[in-house]
Automatic annotation (TrEMBL), chain A:
<dbReference type="InterPro" id="IPR027417">
    <property type="entry name" value="P-loop_NTPase"/>
</dbReference>
<dbReference type="Pfam" id="PF00071">
    <property type="entry name" value="Ras"/>
</dbReference>
<dbReference type="InterPro" id="IPR001806">
    <property type="entry name" value="Small_GTPase"/>
</dbReference>
<dbReference type="GO" id="GO:0003924">
    <property type="term" value="F:GTPase activity"/>
</dbReference>
<keyword id="KW-0547">Nucleotide-binding</keyword>
<protein>
    <submittedName>
        <fullName>GTP-binding protein</fullName>
    </submittedName>
</protein>
<dbReference type="GO" id="GO:0005525">
    <property type="term" value="F:GTP binding"/>
</dbReference>
<dbReference type="InterPro" id="IPR005225">
    <property type="entry name" value="Small_GTP-bd"/>
</dbReference>
Length: 170, 445
């Protein structure tokens, strides 16, 4: 039996590490050179969030939000979930999480969401970015993970949490 | 013939099409369209929204195209090194009313990439620098005039690297924090910040630690060793408790500060580095100079920009702002949900003299939060270190009214003891009878 297919989007400011998170999760590789994403790229990964339930994830690496309204909202249509990513070392990208979520929610009101505070390897345990990220996540009442595409910290956990939301919507 | 021509043209421009039935099945497609389909699926038997990865979840969108006759597009889909603009449009044929096309837009995408790459790199760098300097400044918490003065000085000094900076202040006033702020406010991400406590190492070790040593310079020098001054090249060297630096090393440090050159232990070759030197002490260096314990010339060299950090008791209500900062910090560290300080707790913190300054406040909040999980921190949750006020009280230059002072102390002791005279007497070091006598003397009921 072919697995059910679900579309998820990775969204967030430019340079927060969306492509790196996908490459770490799908191919288990990391490359620290930065190449800005233009448009979208869809990667695939089969997972089993529940016994006997295979899901083929269509992971949309959506170009970064650098100005409001520059990302085509058509990319969000049909998504069952989204991982909204920020860079813990750049407060601005954390502050923009709410705008990114608002743009996504305009198109997609029901999709599951999870937040990823990426580049955790760059910031210390008491860095204000961590504090701001946790406060933002709590205020949005969304599950959140401090991730590192560099060392893999919480990357799989973040994707798996989102995947579980897809098959067990609250 | 038409199909052949069409397919040949599309192949030349690396583009593809497919015609879709009302049941969302593919009826016909150009050969290149296979590149857009999932390998595991059969185009003849699989609905288009299960066949093309980019169409997963788009069943309703396809039906909308059918129903409303409006084109839907997905700009710049990247696939196998090329970029495509995908269009799902109505097609004037009842059997295949939807036309899917993938136009090759690789050249356009490459051009856009070239423009945005540079723009985004600059944007990211700027944002990171802003965050870095904003975070550095955010470590100086408070609104009191005393702290505002420090913030202003730090701002001015952050751009000047050549001048040594001397931080003076009581123990626990945050000299190390200010040193870091000075460094991070202007340093690049990879510039080093090296810190050493001059009181922590014996003289013999301190010299090699600071200036480095070459192999054979002393008995156990089995290989060349880079000193902290060299390690701080391009960044900042923070010498805490500079007053404890032995006199011989003070001379060597002065020479380095004047020439920016130094010679590692046992070496004939001079090295030169570019560092910012920040020194700190809780002692009065002028008095140390008078005693002969600190070189006058080094003092003058360091004292070009003296920065005196205020004691916590001089920072008015900053005590509360700092306490709230520590609550947020320890909430995260201990995974607690303390809401903040109750009014009584605030009053208690404001009344204390904080001889241990910010460090004492931090310890005090940490201790309070270990024993409480949620709600507000109350006055009784906060255990303050007993202070010995008699040791701190000195006659002000303008004199004082002893009677008023005694009355105020009696009232404060009673308030702190909640009206309990035995406890109030203990706070003042009096017997209960003596306290009663003094209360009567001042007409305090």
């Amino acid at each position: 039996m072919s697995p059910i297919k679900k579309k998820i989007c990775l969204l967030g400011d430019v340079g927060v590490g969306k492509t790196s998170l996908i490459r770490r999760y799908v191919e288990n590789i990391f490359d620290d050179s930065y190449l800005t994403t233009i448009g979208v790229k869809v990667s695939q990964k089969t997972i089993s969030p529940k016994e006997g339930k295979d899901v083929l994830l269509m992971i949309w690496d959506v170009e970064g939000f650098n100005k409001p309204g520059t990302v085509s909202p058509n990319y969000f249509i049909g998504a069952a979930g989204a991982m909204v990513v920020c860079d813990l070392s750049r407060g601005e990208s954390i502050e923009n999480l709410k705008d990114v979520i608002r743009d996504f929610r305009r198109i997609n009101t029901q999709a599951g969401l999870v937040l990823a505070g990426n580049k955790a390897d760059l910031v210390g345990s008491t860095h204000p970015g961590r504090l701001l990220f946790r406060e933002t996540a709590r205020s949005l009442e969304l599950p959140f993970f401090e991730t590192s595409a560099l060392n893999g910290q919480n990357v799989a956990a973040c994707f798996e949490t989102l995947s579980r939301k897809l098959i067990e919507p609250s | 013939m038409t199909d052949l021509l069409c397919n040949s043209l599309l192949a030349q421009i690396q583009s593809a099409y497919a015609l879709v039935t009302p049941a969302l099945m593919i009826e016909k497609h150009s050969p290149l369209f296979n590149n857009f389909c999932l390998e595991a699926e059969d185009p003849r038997t699989t609905p288009v929204c299960d066949l093309v990865p980019e169409f997963v979840g788009l069943e309703n969108t396809f039906r909308e195209v059918l129903k409303k006759g409006k084109t839907f597009d997905l700009p710049l889909i990247n696939k196998a090194g090329n970029s495509y603009h995908c269009l799902v449009s109505p097609y004037d044929n009842p059997e295949t009313p939807i036309l899917v096309t993938f136009y090759n837009r690789t050249e356009f995408a490459n051009l856009k990439q070239e423009i945005l790459q540079r723009e985004n790199e600059i944007r990211i760098l700027k944002a990171r620098l802003t965050a870095q300097s904003r975070n550095a400044a955010s470590n100086l918490i408070g609104k009191s005039p005393a702290l505002q003065k420090i913030k202003l000085m730090v701002e001015r000094l952050s751009g000047i690297k050549a001048t040594a900076i001397l931080l003076q202040g009581e123990t626990g006033t945050g000299k190390s924090t200010v040193a870091r702020v000075l460094h991070y406010a202007s340093a690049a991400e990879k510039d080093p910040f090296i810190e050493i406590n001059c009181a922590a190492l014996p003289e013999t070790l301190l010299e090699s630690e600071l200036f480095g040593a070459v192999k054979g310079a002393y008995t156990n020098a089995l290989q060349d060793r880079t000193g902290l001054i060299e390690a701080a090249d391009g960044g900042s060297l923070f010498l805490d408790e500079i007053s404890e630096l032995p006199l011989a090393l003070q001379a060597k440090l002065l020479s380095f500060l004047e020439t920016r050159r130094f010679r590692p232990l046992g070496s004939n070759r001079e090295k030169s580095v570019d560092i910012r030197l920040i020194a700190a002490t809780n002692k009065d260096l002028e008095k140390e100079v008078e005693k002969g314990a600190f070189r006058e010339d080094l003092f003058f060299r360091l004292n070009i920009v003296p920065l005196h950090l205020p004691a916590l008791r001089e920072m008015d209500e900053d005590v509360i702002l700092l306490a709230e900062h520590f609550i947020r910090h320890f909430n995260l560290q201990f995974n607690k949900r303390i809401k903040g300080l109750s009014p009584a707790a605030k009053k208690k913190l404001l009344k204390h003299s904080w001889p241990g300054n910010v460090r004492e406040l931090s310890n005090c909040m940490e201790q309070a939060m270990i024993f409480k999980d949620h709600g507000w921190l109350e006055a009784e949750d906060i255990a303050l270190r007993r202070t010995e006020p008699e040791a701190n009280i000195s006659l002000p230059a303008t004199g004082l009214n002893l009677e008023t002072l005694e009355r105020n102390l009696l009232l404060e002791a009673l308030e702190r003891a909640g009206g309990n005279k035995t406890q109030a007497a203990r706070l003042l070091g009096l017997t209960r009878d003596t306290l009663r006598y003094r209360l009567e003397k001042h007409g305090i009921a």
